[in-house]
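Annotated sample (chain length 352).
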Amino acid sequence: MNIVFRVDSSTQIGAGHVMRCITLANELKQKGFSVVFICGDLIGNLISIIKFPVFRLPKNNNFHSDNLYLNSLGSSQEQDAKQSIKVIPKNIDLIVIDNYALDDIWHQKLRKFAQKIMVIDDLADKQFDCDILLNQNLGIQKNNYKNKVSESCKLLLGCDYALLRKEFSELREKAFIKRKNTKTIKNILISMGGSDVKNITYEILQHLGDEYNIVVVLGKESPHNNLIINYAENKNIEVIVNANNMAELMLNADLSIGASGSTNWERLCLGLPSLVLTIAENQKVFSKNLDKLGLIRLVGDYSDKNSIGRINEKISLITDLSNWSNRCFNSCNGEGVIKVAEVIITSLTIKD
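Output written by the structure step:
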């Protein structure tokens, strides 16, 4: 069977969408699927890390929209659909779309080119013409998609369907043993996403005490890498650019300070207590839900300098590491990608 992923990454969009699509693509490849990607050739993209054939869509430098997501797409939906149709291979069984800018307008134009359409979403803010919809955020409910999808659409909602790489579930047992014996915070992991255009990492480092061993993870496309690397010299700070062992780094950490987004589920899977900042408007609702459930401690939005300034104080007040870890472990088991792949196989096997 043949699957196409339509997903973008860029300095503006970040890495999360393409990373979770790669995770699902790898699982489907293991089950015998043939996979290709269609990606916009955007500034700061991560196309180079996709180990599948990629069709690149040219960016329209003259395009501008007041809609944030269309602006990050670099074209109108109609233009993007037209370009995608030009490159999409024949005999496609499933198109997987992970892009906030594309809704039922795009879906309907691509309908006749695939047996089924699947959408990966976080916002529940538009109309969808799809057969499967995945929203892995905790607290999302069917009612959020009322009148936004057809009655026949299969909804995959919540952490049970989180698209995590297998190394996270494989390290859960080790993490469980480690967390039970962790009483104090010595090792801190800082990860503000693939681009960190606002240089939030540097702001955080200014407010952390010298008593911690700190590991900072940066993306290759982050514009402030040299500044942070120079700052880390002669300090208890290790800087890693383009880490390929995030599960291991999370296992070794006692606390994470990071951006909200898809990486929340990685931390939860490994029982890693986390202080979290939102870096985009669409992260605020589900981040507040995680905070209310005691799964993260929400520092606030990245723009709140006062909250960042109190990070060291927030760390000193943490006294419930073991209980906090247990709540995290119970919320996400890391088997979501297997479940999603099974749903896809069943959907494509059953003919309408």
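Annotation: The radius of gyration is 20 Å.
Annotation: The longest helix spans residues 16-30.
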